[in-house]
Write a structure and sequence with these properties.
The chain is built from 18 helices and 8 strands. The protein is α+β, with helices and mostly antiparallel strands. It is flat, with a radius of gyration of 27 Å. The chain has 3 domains: 9-130 and 203-243, no CATH class; 135-198, no CATH class; 260-373, no CATH class. Strand 1 and strand 2 form a beta hairpin.
Length: 377
């Protein structure tokens, strides 16, 4: 439940250019021919490069015209297989996009862009998302050469079995002090210096906020892709799609108008005093919809937010217990003894994260909303 933090300025231009480079295998001239019949964008013919970098609001505005192009190029073909007629379908426009074959390269662009700060799912805010490399932790190239095992060594591009064995044999007798101690070619040295390894993986999926079916022409658009956890994308959202209209702008983490995280808040309901709460069954967790009720309601039901967060009520119980154990009068007196402010003392008790307005930590909004509600913050 947080807006995607795209880079800005020149870094954004570089990011978008890297994204376009990952789509170099697309037949752009053919797509551009189809796009000539679409409404112009800022006075010029819409092109593939322009389309895939359009803001979400502009994608929504092009939905009807591109759907019309796709429908005009939808064809049925009758084939005879094993003496039985079979109807197959082709779409000369949509078939040019082929998201499934481009997805690995697109994921790499997301993984490599540090400004995106991939840490927790942008939909649920519960599960971790990240990219990672499957090798040990090393201080740098020299530490790597001295301590990497055979499997890690051969993950470096251009370093094969023989070179890896030579490195291991050398360091059995003498510590490697500089890269030049090992006979490596220019490419091998370059990869080592940049720590460019082959075994990179994605611990996230890319979801289409505007679904691939029937909107395949948006399947490669940068601002239609949301880094998310497996559960949100595949298990819960799956074939459930949001309506393609301007209401998407409030709930899509890719949108400049994103307001989802401010449109509702978590609340705990209980009778009596906080001190009467001893187990997680002594209070009720609710999602309080503040604005955009219909969109938030569907979002909640699609990603099963209520149920998933109720499963973490024990974390709120810990907050409540600490609140009861540390009344304001004690916080003020103890802070005075330590010569720090009451706010700083609270951070020692509850941790620094809930006092941050923006954080990528899992369940940050969940904890912060409740902290506000029970007057910790």
């Amino acid at each position: 439940m947080r807006k995607i933090s795209y880079p800005t300025g020149q870094k954004l231009k570089d990011f978008e250019q890297n994204y376009l480079s990952a789509l170099s295998s697309v037949d752009k001239p053919k797509i551009n021919l189809f796009l000539q019949s679409a409404p112009k964008y800022k006075g010029s013919f819409l092109t593939f490069d322009t389309l895939v970098l359009l803001p979400l609001a502009d994608l929504i505005s092009y939905e009807k015209s591109l759907t019309s192009i796709a429908n005009k190029n939808y064809k049925k073909h009758k084939k005879v297989i094993d003496k039985l007629p079979i109807i197959t379908h082709t779409n000369n426009f949509l078939d040019l996009f082929e998201y499934s074959t481009k997805q690995p390269k697109l994921s790499t662009v997301f993984r490599q862009e540090s400004a995106l700060n991939l840490k927790t799912c942008h939909y649920c805010g519960i599960d971790y998302i990240n990219g990672f490399s499957d090798f040990g932790d090393y201080k740098g190239p020299i530490d790597f050469l001295n301590n990497a095992d055979y499997d890690d060594l051969v993950f470096v591009p251009e370093i094969g079995k023989e070179t890896a064995l030579d490195i291991i044999a050398y360091r059995k007798h003498k510590k490697i002090k500089k890269i030049e101690d090992i006979k490596l070619n220019v490419l091998q040295k370059g990869h080592l210096l940049q720590f460019k390894f082959k075994n990179n993986y994605d611990h996230f999926t890319l979801d289409h906020i505007i679904p691939q079916k029937p909107y395949g022409f948006f399947s490669l658009c940068l601002y239609n892709l949301v880094p998310s956890c497996y559960c949100c994308n595949t298990k819960f959202k799956n074939s459930k799609n949001f309506l393609v209209n301007n209401s998407l702008l409030n709930i899509s983490p890719t949108s400049s108008r994103y307001s989802m995280s401010n449109d509702f808040k978590f609340k705990v309901l209980y009778s009596g005093d906080l001190k009467d709460i001893t187990t997680s069954t002594d209070f009720v967790l609710r999602l309080d919809y503040l604005k955009n009720f219909n969109e938030i309601y569907k979002y909640d039901k699609t990603f099963k937010l209520t149920g998933r967060y109720i499963a973490h009520k024990d974390e709120l119980l810990e907050l409540i217990k600490k609140k009861v154990e540390n009344p304001n009068c004690d916080i003020i007196s103890k802070a005075k003894l330590l010569k720090i402010s009451p706010e700083e003392y609270k951070k020692l008790i509850y941790g620094n994260e809930i006092f941050k307005k923006d954080s990528t930590s899992p369940m940050h909004k969940f904890r912060r909303d409740v902290a506000k509600h029970i007057k910790i913050i």
